[in-house]
Amino acid sequence: MDYDPSVEKKAIDDTKAGVKGLVDSGIVEIPRIFVRPPHELAEELTMSKSTLQVPVVDLCGIEVEDGRKKIVDEIREACEKWGFFQLINHGVPSSVLEGMIDGTRKFHEQDVEVKKVYYSSDPTRGVRYESNIQLLTTKGRTATWKDTLYVNELVSEPEEIPEVCRTTLVEYKNHVIKLGDILLGLLSEALGLKPDYLKAAECEKGVLLACHYYPACPQPQLTLGTGRHTDPVFLTILLQDQIGGLQVMCDNQWANVTPIEHGLVVNIGDLLQILSNDKFVSAIHRVVAKKVGPRISAACFFTGGSTPPKMFGPIKELLSDENPPLYKEFLVADYTAKYFSKPLDTLDLFRL
């Protein structure tokens, strides 16, 4: 009853070595702050696992009218049922994808003295490295088994990015931003709108890159790499290595998002669910911890951080007497603030 998780958190923070530092120290039991509550662990034993597979969308043929229509139809179906799909033939060179995985690994596996200058929990920093963002907030008291390097739109000069991953990160980000534009066009069409609709609405503004490193875990059954959540953004494009661990909730079961070599994972965020008036779903997902590792991934979030701030809400062209608005209008900053205090109920807080 006298357990104070802040003591363990401070001890980890003070090393600035993150979860990787714990593993490097040779621990065989994970610290208590990483152990999930008993009710969660019990629920895990009774919850059935789905054998369903997230849809795969092939962008080959996008330039041909019939090919594009097929792609739009597949994306619409995936976004309505899953909120997730995997993407192949997306145009990002395999060398760029491999370079991004390698660059992320190199950053996290540097000497602690080199990388700790970036260690911070201050979200206003353009470049920061941290561990356990959700610990000791009202979002949850259980730490997660990963370290992350964040690079956001506040970075004006490439020199601000750590040298060990600078070239690969900039190249990857440029490719993914272009892919984001293509996807927003396809998503617009999937909603029955003109191809430039979501881009004109500034859904592509504000890009945050999160480079995750999930070390091998000595007791993976007790913790998670990333806890269950939805993304408080418009759209997420994720690159993952071949280790696996990403799961999405579908029909109240966890389905594995099995890695596809040189593929990318795309998921709908809360903000696009609101704009679509619940036509598209922002699905709950998580990453399980594993005995093997490190698992490496890079998530590119399209956050909608427009300047000056603008109001968003259900798209007027999608509304009618039979389909009235389900959400009130909002500022992205207000949604994000609510999300970090109560993430899994945030959509409900904005329902009419």
3D structure, described in words:
The protein is α+β, with helices and mostly antiparallel strands and 352 residues long. The chain contains 11 helices and 15 strands. An 8-stranded mixed β-sheet has the order 2-3-11-8-13-6-5-4. A 5-stranded mixed β-sheet has the order 1-10-9-12-7, with no helix packed on it. Strands 14-15 form a two-stranded antiparallel sheet. Helix 4 (65-81) links the parallel strand 2 and strand 3 (84-88). Helix 4 (65-81) packs across helix 7 and helix 5 (94-108) packs across helix 7. The chain is globular, with a radius of gyration of 20 Å. The mean pLDDT is 92.
Number of strands: 15
How many whole angstroms does the radius of gyration measure? 20 Å
Order of helices and strands: HHHEEHEHHEEHHEEEEEEHEEEEHH
Number of helices: 11
Q: What's the rounded overall pLDDT mean?
A: 92
Helix content: 25-40%
Beta-strand residue fraction: 15-25%
Content-based structural category: alpha+beta
Could you name the ranges where pLDDT drops below 50 across 5 or more consecutive residues?
A: none
The best one-word shape is globular
Biggest sheet strand order reads: 2-3-11-8-13-6-5-4
Assembly status: single chain
Largest sheet: 8 strands, mixed
Terminal Cα span: 41 Å
